[in-house]
Design brief:
homodimer, about 425 residues, Molybdopterin biosynthesis moea protein, domain 2, Molybdopterin biosynthesis moeA protein, domain 3, 4 domains, 6-stranded mixed β-sheet, 7 helices, about 30% strand, elongated
C-alpha cells in the first residue's frame, strides 16, 4: 500500500516527447532491396533519380492527327482546312498540309509539333478536314514533361503509394531500396489477464490489448512481435523485456504502469538497465500513467492497461516514434474534419484531454457527438466513435455548438462522393 | 482507320455505375474463419454477439478505495471522514465506515458501490481520511457498460480495426469469420509496352499500370493477380481474360479501350461471351474511354491505359464494386477537406472532371493548388498532388478563391497535431 500516493508530477505531452526523443537519438531502420511488386506501402530508403526523360519522346496526349501547327492557321468550324493523310515516320516538310493519325501515347512524328483531336476532324474522301487551329505543342505531352532525366522522381522517406509505384516502373525500376519494417515487441502484464479461449477465474478478464497494439503496429506497416502476457512479477516482466530488446527495435508494454501496488513495469524497466524510465506520468487524459524509457539505446513505451489509454498513449508517443524509425519525410497523421459539438463536454484543466466523438453529416455540416463512458477501460467507446477531439491543457471542456477539429480514425458516414 | 470516329455517346458516371451494378447483381465473396491475430483490416462476415456482459462485473475505473457511497456523505476537503481499511472480499455491512483499496479494473467488493480516487484520500495512521463525497457508482465501470450479454458487439460488414480486435478479444473470441479477399486479375495491353528491366524498341515505353493497379487493390485489402501484358491482338487479350475469369472474382484491363485502331479490348471482351461490354465511354475526364462489362457473371473493368485515367476509373468504378464484394456496410471513401483554390481551372462542360490538386495549410485555412499537365498520362501529377476536386457536369471550371471539397489520397502537410 506504500505506493498509493498518485503521481507527484505530471509532464506535459510536448515536453515528454521532446525529452524522450532527445535521449533516444532515433536512427532510421536498416534498408533492404525489394522487388517493386512488393514495395506497396513501404517507405523509400533513398532518392530515386530518373535515368531518362519521361516521356522519353514527345507523345500525343489524345487520339487524333499529328500536324504541323502552323498548317492549321485559319482553320475553323465554318472554314475547315484540308489535309493529306500520311503514315510516314516523318511528316513531309514541304508542299501540301499533311496529317498523321496518332493514338494517345504514341510518339509525335518528326516534322509535326501538335495534335488535332479526333472530334475536330472529318474524313473527306482520301483527305481529312480539320476545323480547329492548334498552337505549337497543343495536345502533345512533351519529352521530360513528367520527369526530367536526372531529376528526383520519388524522394527518400516517401511511403510508396500506387502512383509512386507506377512512376518508378515507368522509369524502368524493378527493385527499390526500402526501409526495413521496425520490429516492435508487445508485452501485456497483469495477474488479472487470461488468454481468450482459456480458463479464467472469476476476477480475471480476457486479455485484449496485444491484438489491438499489434493491429496498430500493422496500421503503420511495422512488424509486431507478440511476447504474450507477464504476471505481476518483476522477474517475469524483466525477462520478457530482455527478450524484446534482443529480437525487436522497440518494446511496448501494456498494464502495470500506474502507481498501485501491482504496477511493477517501471520498476522492471529500471532493473533491466540504464537509463530505464525517463518520463512517468503525463498530463493527459486518458493515458496519464504512460511512461517512456530507453534500454540498450532502444525505445521502451510503457502504456496503460486500459485499452483506450493504451490507444491514446500509442497515438501520442508510438506513432511519431515509428514514423522516425521508418525515416518518413513527415509524421503520418490522421485526417481531420471540422465539426460542431452536439453537446458540451467537461474536461480536466491542466491535462490534454482526448475526447472520443462520433462525427456525422448534418445537413451541410459535420456534427460531433461525444461518445462518453466512465473511465478509459470501455473499448466500445472506440468502436462507436470515429474520431477524437483534443482539448488543450488550458481549457476545461468544449461548449455545445463549438467548432472543433476532429482527428478521424474511421470513416464518416456518407454516400459515394464520386458519382 | 475506320474506327476513328470518337464516342457516339457518353454515359454519365452515375448512370453507368447503376446500369453495371444492375447487371452484375454483386454477391459478397465467400467467408472464411481466421484467428483473431490475423484479422486486422479484414471485413467481418457475420455479427459477433457478446456471450457475456463486458465488463462481467462492476469494476473500478480508477486507482483508489471502494466504499459505500452513502458513507461519504458530508466528506469534504476541510472536513474529511475517517474510514477503516479492509482487504475483505465483502465490505462489512454495519458499524463503522470501511474502505478497500482497489486498482483500476479490479472488481468492486460486495457491499461497496463507489470508488474514491487516490488523490482524495490521505493515510492517517491505520485509517484513511476521505475528503470527497462520491455518488452511487461514482468511478465504477458498471457490469455490461461496455457491451451487454446478447448485444451485437461488432457488426457484419465492419472492416476490423485495432479497437474492434480488442473488443472481440475481450469478449473471449479467438477466431472470427471474415470475408475472403476478392481476387482481382490485372491485365495490361499494348504493343508499346515493355516490362521494366527488359529490352525495348524506340517507340516502346515501360509498362507501369499493373504494379499501380495491384497496389490499389492492396489498398482495399483485396488480392491482385498479375496476368502480365497482352499484345494488341484480340486472341491474346481473349486468352488472358479467360484465364482471369477462371482464377479471379473480377477482371481489370488497362489500355486499348479508346476508339483508335488498336483499341481491341472491348472487342475481345465481347468475343469471350455475353453480355460483354455493358457501357463504353463515360462523361468523365480523365477516364472517358472506360468500359464496364460482365462475363460469366463476373465484373470486367476496362480501364484506360493512361495512368491517371486508370486511377480515376478505378476510383469511380472498382472501389464501390470491391466494397460490395467485401460486403462492407458502406463504401469506404477518401477523407475530405475544404480548401480554397489558389487559381482558376477550366474544365469541360458535360463531363465530370477530376482535378488533381495539392492541398497545403495556409494560415488557418487550407489552399488547393491545381497540379496540371497535358493529358492524363502524366503520372507525376499524382505524386505531386495529394487529392482531387470533382467538378460536376454542369460547371465549366473552378474559380480562383472558390471553396472546394478535396478528396485526399495522401496526407496534407502539417506537424504532429497531437502534441
Amino acid at each position: 500500500m506504500s505506493k498509493l500516493r498518485g503521481f507527484q508530477k505530471l509532464t506535459f505531452t510536448y515536453e515528454a516527447l521532446q525529452t524522450w526523443f532527445n535521449a533516444l537519438q532515433i536512427q532510421r531502420c536498416r534498408e533492404v532491396s525489394v522487388p517493386l511488386t512488393e514495395a506497396f506501402n513501404r517507405v523509400l530508403a533513398e532518392d530515386v533519380v530518373a535515368k531518362e526523360d519521361l516521356p522519353r519522346f514527345d507523345r500525343s496526349a489524345v487520339d487524333g492527327f499529328a500536324v504541323r501547327s502552323e498548317d492549321t492557321n485559319g482553320a475553323s468550324q465554318p472554314k475547315p482546312l484540308l489535309f493529306r493523310l500520311t503514315d510516314a515516320e516523318v511528316l513531309p516538310d514541304n508542299g501540301p498540309r499533311y496529317a498523321k493519325p496518332v493514338w494517345t501515347g504514341q510518339p509525335i512524328p518528326k516534322g509535326a509539333d501538335a495534335v488535332v483531336m479526333l472530334e475536330h476532324t472529318q474524313k473527306k474522301e482520301e483527305k481529312m478536314e480539320i476545323s480547329v487551329q492548334v498552337a505549337p505543342y497543343g495536345n502533345v505531352s512533351r519529352q521530360g514533361e513528367d520527369v526530367k532525366n536526372g531529376e528526383t522522381a520519388v524522394k527518400q522517406g516517401t511511403r510508396l503509394k500506387p502512383y509512386h509505384l507506377a512512376l518508378l516502373s515507368a522509369l524502368g525500376n524493378t527493385e527499390v531500396k526500402v526501409v526495413e519494417k521496425p520490429k516492435i515487441a508487445i508485452i501485456a502484464t497483469g495477474n488479472e489477464l487470461a488468454e481468450a479461449g482459456t480458463e479464467r477465474n472469476e476476477k480475471q478478464i480476457y486479455e485484449s490489448n496485444r491484438v489491438m497494439l499489434c493491429g496498430m503496429c500493422c496500421e503503420l506497416d511495422t512488424e509486431p512481435l507478440d511476447l504474450g502476457v507477464a504476471k505481476d512479477n518483476v522477474e517475469e516482466i524483466v525477462e520478457k523485456i530482455q527478450i524484446g530488446l534482443k529480437i525487436a527495435d522497440a518494446v511496448i508494454t501494456t498494464g502495470g504502469t500506474s502507481v498501485g501496488g501491482l504496477d511493477l513495469v517501471p520498476e522492471a524497466v529500471n532493473k533491466v538497465g540504464e537509463p530505464g524510465v525517463i518520463v512517468h506520468g503525463i498530463a493527459i487524459r486518458p493515458a496519464m500513467p504512460t511512461a517512456l524509457g530507453m534500454l540498450e539505446g532502444k525505445p521502451v513505451m510503457i502504456l496503460s492497461g486500459n485499452p483506450v489509454a493504451a490507444i491514446t498513449g500509442f497515438e501520442i508517443f508510438a506513432r511519431p516514434l515509428i514514423c522516425k524509425m521508418l525515416g518518413l519525410q513527415k509524421e503520418e497523421t490522421r485526417p481531420t474534419v471540422e465539426a460542431k459539438m452536439t453537446r458540451k463536454v467537461a474536461t480536466a484543466l491542466g491535462r490534454k484531454n482526448f475526447v472520443r466523438v462520433r462525427v456525422f453529416q448534418k445537413n451541410d455540416d459535420f456534427a460531433a457527438e461525444p461518445v462518453s463512458a466512465k473511465g478509459s477501460g470501455t473499448i466500445s467507446t472506440m468502436t462507436r466513435a470515429n474520431g477524437y477531439v483534443i482539448v488543450p491543457e488550458n481549457r476545461e471542456g468544449l461548449a455545445e455548438g463549438e467548432t472543433v477539429t476532429v482527428h478521424l480514425f474511421a470513416d464518416v458516414e456518407s454516400g459515394n462522393p464520386n458519382v
